Structure formats: C-alpha cells, structure tokens
Amino acid sequence: MNAAQLMIQCLEEEKVKYIFGVPGEENEDFLFALENSDIIFIPTRHEQGAAFMADVWGRLTGKAGVCLATLGPGATNLITAIADAYLDRAPLVAITGQGSTNRLHRESHQIIDVTKMLNPITKWNAHIQDVEVIPEIVRKAFKVAEAEKPGATHIEFPENIASRQLNESIPVLKNYSVRRPAPDSQAISLAIQLLKQSKKPLIIAGNGVIRTEASEALTEFSTQFQIPVSCTFMGKGAISDRHPLSLGSIGLGFKDYVIEATEAADLIICIGFDIVEHDPAIWNPQGKKRIIHIDLESAEVDLHYNPEIEVLGDLTTTLQEITNGMQGITAYLDFTLSTRSLISESIQSFTLDDDSTEFNAPGVINAIRDILPDNGLLISDVGSHKMWIARNFKTYIPNGCIISNGLATMGIALPGGIAANLVDSHRPVVCLMGDGGAMMNIQELETAKRLGISCTFIILNDNNYGLITWKQEMSEDKSFGTKLGNPNFVQLAESFGIDGYKPKNIADFKNILANSISGNKLSVIEVPISTEVNETLTDSLSQYFDSKKSK
After folding, report:
1. Are 194 and 152 in the same domain?
2. Are 306 and 382 in the same domain?
3. Which residues of 470-486 are buried (b: 16+ CB within 10 A; e: fewer)?
4. Is residue 103 pLDDT above 70, yes or no?
5. What CATH number is attached to the domain comprising 488?
6. Structural domain count of the chain
7. Where are the beta strands (DSSP E) in 103-145?
8. What are phi and psi of 155, to 5 degrees?
9. Within this chain, do residues 235 and 295 fall inside the same structural domain, yes or no?
C-alpha cells in the first residue's frame, strides 16, 4: 500500500461519496488509488466548477464536499469557490497535488506556496510532510470543515509523498460525531428578561438556523409568542413564507418595506445570523437597536451589531429553553400587518400575464414559483436576478432556495445544480442565472450531460452585467463597462446534446419548465429580459420612504 491508498481509506471512513476535480500529473497516484474505491471521481471542465460542486454539496448535506486539483494553476483555479465556501459557511475539503518536496525550497516549474495562498480563505489547511500523519490530517480537515461555523479546509499532497510505500500498517481514524453544547442558563435568563421588557420584538433568521436544523424550533417559538420573522438571503426557508408571521427576506442594499418593520421593532432577536450574510447597518443605522444574539459562536464586533445579550449553544435547545422560561407570557401584538401586506402586494404586482411576450426577472421568478413544487430547489447565481429571487421568491422549506451571499460569487449556479441533483436525483432543481454568471462556468454543461443530470438551467439574458448597471445608475444615473455580447444559448445547449428553448411568452415558459421538471430532463431555457423593472422598484421604494419622512 502507498500513501495515496491510505488517504483514500481515510476518505472512505469520512463517508465521501464524490470527489469533483481535474486530473493532473501531481495527483496521479491519488487518482489511481481512487480507481478501486467506492468513491466516485467526477472529472469537471474547470477546477472552479469542481469546487462549486463541492461547495453546494456541503451546503445541502452538511457533510464536506470534496474537490481535487493539481499544483500551480490547478490550485489557483480553486480559489474563488473555496473562498465562497469559506464565507458562505459551507463545509468543503480541497485536496491539491504538489511537486516533490525536494524542489519546494527553490523556484521550480509550477511551484507556488499553495498552503500560504489558501490560508486566508480556509478554516485550516495543511501540507502533508510524512505518511504517518495522513489519518490525522484527513480527520482534522473534515472535523474542522464541518464544525460550526462550517467552511473550507485544504490538504496539500506532494507527489513523492503520495507514491511512498508504507513500511507498516497505519490505522485510519474513526469519525465520531460531536454534540453541540447547551446554552448557558444565566444567558437564557437574561434573554428572557429582555424579551419580557419588549413590546415589539422581531426575529432575523440567518443560515445558521438551516445549517443546524433549527427551523422547526424557530417556527414554534415565533408562533407561540407571535413574533414576526425576516430571513436573510441565505436563511430563506428557515420559516415558511406561507407562515402568517413571515416577512420574507431582508438583505437588499437599499431600504425595502421590511426595513419599516425593523425600524418599528424595539428588540431584534438574531438567530443563526452572520453579518457576512447581511450588513446590519441597513437595519440598524444608528447602532442603537437592542439585540439578542443566538448562535453557536459569539458575535463579530461591529458598530451596528453590538448585542446586549449573547446566548451561545445549540439553537434548537436555546429556543426551547427560552420558550419554557416564558410560559404564561401573553403573545405579543403583531405590529407588522401593514408591512407584510405591502410586501405581498409588491411581489404580486410583478406577475406577468400568460400572454406577455416581454419578460423581466421578477415576472419569470413568479412564474417559476407557480410551477416549481414546494419541495423543489431554486439555485440562484449572482446578479440583479439574485436580488429579485431573494426578495420575491417565496420559499417554503429549509434549503428550498440556495443563494451565495457571503462571498456572493458569480458562476455558482450551474455547477451547483449538478451537485444538487447528485444529492437527490428525485428532487426538482432549477438554476436561475444571468448571462454574465452563466458564461463563467458554461463549460460544465458537458459535465451535466455526461453525468445524466436532471436539472433546468434558466439563463436571463440582458447582454449586460445587470446588477452593476443597476447600482451604477442608482449612484451616477449612468452605467459604464457593463455591456456584453452572448452566444445563441439555445444552439449552444443543443451542441452539447441538451434540449434548448427560447419561450415566446410566459405561458410558453411555464409549459417548457413544467415539462422539463415532470420529465426529469436536462434543459436550458434562454429568456431575453428587459431591466426597466429594476429602476421601477428602487424608484417606488424611494418615493414610499420619502413620503413617510414628510409625514
């Protein structure tokens, strides 16, 4: 047995199912060791695509997705998606090959210090210097990646270490589960006191609620005391948007109707909230809101996020203990009825008639919601459509909508859809992307076709970096450097052997989407869109809040 085979045994102990990656000379021994394993290696067309697949796998399963690259340019191509997993709190283990250790001390072909390069964007990373440490390094990489708050770790495997023969048997470390700690009783008591003083509490739920499977406890807590809930982009689905206390999402870079509710609230209860998901300056501009922070980790220090009470521990246990301590307390009076009505009316106002031949992002999103089953998954790429998905796509279950909003990375949706289908081949998956994000990893269409993936990729085409145009126009009333050209996406899909469509109207779009989902097909739908609706939204919101000021 050689060192590469030992590492594969360690990965098998971690219950790794897939490794996504690009082969290279320096990971040759690793790949040949993988050949006889139950772990499936999926060659991708770019290392970034591989790491995004691992990223989304980790986010959906809670178990680290694994990606593989060779040294030098292979490793550098992983960086963006590793950073995305790091800030989106998705467990990921990256494995990179490296040249022989006898040439790492000097300038040499393709040699760069990968561990130093990845250090700022990983929770932990290590260079394997000897065979005996492999079981410890693998176990630590997975343990650290999956522990709250999860993220990316990295293992560098030099080629001369990978090929080294073992002189004796080296035991693989077992993977034992670790229970989350219970909250401090004194902190629970202080949180209850603050809640008892409050008249208008409001909950902001973050992705931590979904990661730790605390959605049921959150819903029960909110329902029992009639406390309204707004979710971050990455927390969508933590409470169902059908729930009468759901305020939808918070997180736009400008004031939306939900901010009216946060302004009226006298206490903000942040549960599983991470400031990388949303800048608290938007809802706490003066830094004076009373805040309870409920999470596994202490709050980041921030001028606009300075919690009065921090309750650290398992979220479900924390919410149950607070609920028990508040028995006999009368439910709060709902102060957000008018705000919820505004939000609902606004979302509905963007619905397009079935015979409409001019498409826009919110109209398409409402149509997707009409067709996609409640248990389906919508994966958003990054662009102006992400704002509309976060704001308007009603989400009914945890992980019913995946949005990158820590690093907010273009190019995640297409490879993410491949990973989502591998997680659950029976679950309907729709990936919505702009033309800009689509072209960043369009090559992975071949991977999807080769794997027999069932997924619907929808490309909203405005020949533009639309989000940047939107923000430039809000800032300077003009845009620069954002216009693009594009291929014929239908013909491009067909060149890969994938069904491509360009709908004539909304009814046609719904029919195509419904057939793709019901038929478990791999499809690409190109939808040319107009973007005037972006300014319509910001103008209407500006006018609304201006009128509120004048009263």
Report:
1. no
2. no
3. bbbbeeeeebeebeeeb
4. no
5. 3.40.50.970
6. 3
7. 124-127
8. -125, 125
9. yes
CA neighbor of 72 nearest in space, from 122, 25, 19: 25
- The residue among 444, 230, 188 whose CA lies nearest residue 322 is 188
Reply yes or no on whether the pLDDT at 43 is more than 80: yes
pLDDT tens by residue, 352-380: 999 999 999 999 999 999 999 999 999 99
Residue 312's alpha-carbon distances to 147, 187, 294, 295, in angstroms, are: 15, 8, 6, 5
3-state secondary structure at position 542: helix
Q: Both tokens of residue 367? A: 């149509």
pLDDT bracket for residue 469 (50, 70, 90) = confident
pLDDT one-digit tens code per residue, 158-211: 988 888 899 888 999 999 888 889 999 999 999 999 999 999 999 999 999 999
Amino acid at 299: A
Are 356 and 488 within one domain?
yes
Q: Do 271 and 418 reside in the same domain of the chain?
A: no
**Which regions of 112-245 does DSSP assign to beta strands (E)?**
124-127, 152-158, 201-205, 229-231
Half-sphere exposure (CA, 13 Å, Cβ side) for 486? Answer: 26
Q: DSSP letter for 397, please.
A: S
24 Cβ neighbours under 8 A, 6+ residues apart: 69, 70, 71, 74, 97
For residue 464, name the pLDDT band (cuts at 50, 70, 90).
confident
- Do 199 and 153 fall within a single domain? no
Is pTM beyond 0.90? Reply is yes
Determine the Cα–Cα distance for residues 38 and 265; give it in Å rounded to an integer.
53
Model confidence at 110, in pLDDT bands (50, 70, 90)? Answer: low
In 3D, which of 65, 46, 72, 34 has the Cα closest to residue 162?
34
Count the residues in the chain: 551
* Residue 549 belongs to a domain: no
For 211-254, the pLDDT digits (tens) are 999 999 999 999 999 999 999 999 999 999 999 999 999 988 88
- 505, two tokens: 């109207």
454 is a domain residue? yes
CA distance 441 to 411: 6
67 lies in which domain range? 3-162
CA distance 383 to 467: 5
